[in-house]
Amino acid sequence: MGDPLAAVQVALADPQALQNGEFTMAIQHYADRDPAAALEFVKSMPPGGPKNQALNAVFAEIGAEDPERGLTLARQLETESGNGRMVVSYLGEPERAVEALASNPTMRLSAERSLAQGWARTDPRAATAWLQTLPPDRANTLAEKIVPQMAFTDPDLALSLAEGFDASAQANIKHSIAATLARSGAFDRALMVVRSFDGTDEADRAYAAVAPRIASSRPDQALSLLGLITDPIIKQNTTVSVVRSIGRTEPARSLALGMELSDQGARSGLEQQVISDWYSSDSAAAKNWINQQSDEGARDRFVAAAAGAMVRPTSSEIAMLNRISDESVRADAFQSALSNVVISEGTSAGESFLKKAELSDSEIERLRKQMK
């Protein structure tokens, strides 16, 4: 449900989402829904870590679903960006990938990681054989990436290989295997792997790896895992991810949980994303829920968050905007809706819309200038 591009944009603007995997999950979801559009978005991003992260995620998704199409896109990108060599390695051409590594050593780590992950998903046993040809230090580094990817097609092999590593690496690999299983829909198997860490020092990280990935399909189990986490920082970060994921299928429940978040910034980002997605997909239900909120401050925040999804505001939506008590919040909400009006209907419609806004003359003038 909702707008996957909006979810990507919200996650991209959230430093925490870039660190805890939410951005990767959002871009993967976007690529699953519309791979070509997701690729165009990634190509428009400025160079840097988030772009490389997104590029890997998009091509992993494209390559897994349609290798031939992915390879065609990768070759096109190869002519536009040095990152293309890394991308090609995702899509089943190991000889070209190895050649790229030799000719561009600075990209070796990223390219080897991509090659390992791509092979692991399509042919896990061949990927294992390739891994064994590498020097031990590089093989150990890559194993934490390649073995979990095997869980998409051969989870038994992945779990068996994980047992061959030291305790720390084994824990990291099993956490990732559980997350991979959850992402592929094997929820019960993922939970079984996670609960094998009960009572250990690695338990919190195990619960955190899986809870957000099952939350949209199994919210009660995700919240149960969340309740087991004892480390306050891990719990806070995981809570935000879980609540956001619940918002994809149960937005009202997600927003109710979000109101309990102590981190105001995290709560604000959550509300913006969930309300915007909900309003875009079912404005009547979202509007009804917003109007039922008894807390005026919360209701005003929700209306402001919904404003960006009001493409052609109706009289009832304009009334909702005008009921926002704080004028600065009200002005920002009108500004969000105004942008949509101007894009969809032009500046004359924007002028008509502004005449219905209960704002000070100075605010009206400010918004009018922004239309030009």
Short overview:
This protein has 25 helices and no strands. It has 372 residues and is an all-alpha fold.
Describe the structure.
It is a single chain. By secondary structure, this protein is mainly alpha-helical. The model is unreliable at 78-92 (pLDDT under 50). Helix 1 (4-12) runs antiparallel to helix 3 (22-33), helix 14 (187-195) runs antiparallel to helix 15 (203-214) and helix 24 (347-355) runs antiparallel to helix 25 (361-371). The relative contact order is 0.06. It contains 25 helices and no strands. 77% of the residues lie in helices and 0% in strands.
Tally of helical runs: 25
Distance between the termini: 34 Å
The portion of residues assigned to helices is: over 70%
Category by helix and strand content: mainly alpha
List the helices and strands and how they pair.
Elements (H helix, E strand, L loop, with lengths): L3 H9 L2 H6 L1 H12 L1 H10 L4 H17 L1 H12 L4 H6 L5 H10 L4 H15 L1 H8 L4 H15 L4 H8 L4 H17 L3 H9 L7 H12 L4 H10 L3 H15 L4 H8 L5 H18 L1 H9 L4 H12 L7 H8 L4 H19 L1 H9 L5 H11 L1
Helix pairs in contact: 1-3, 1-19, 3-4, 3-5, 4-5, 5-6, 5-9, 8-9, 9-10, 9-11, 10-11, 11-12, 11-13, 12-13, 13-14, 13-15, 14-15, 15-16, 15-17, 16-17, 17-18, 18-19, 19-20, 19-21, 21-23, 23-24, 23-25, 24-25
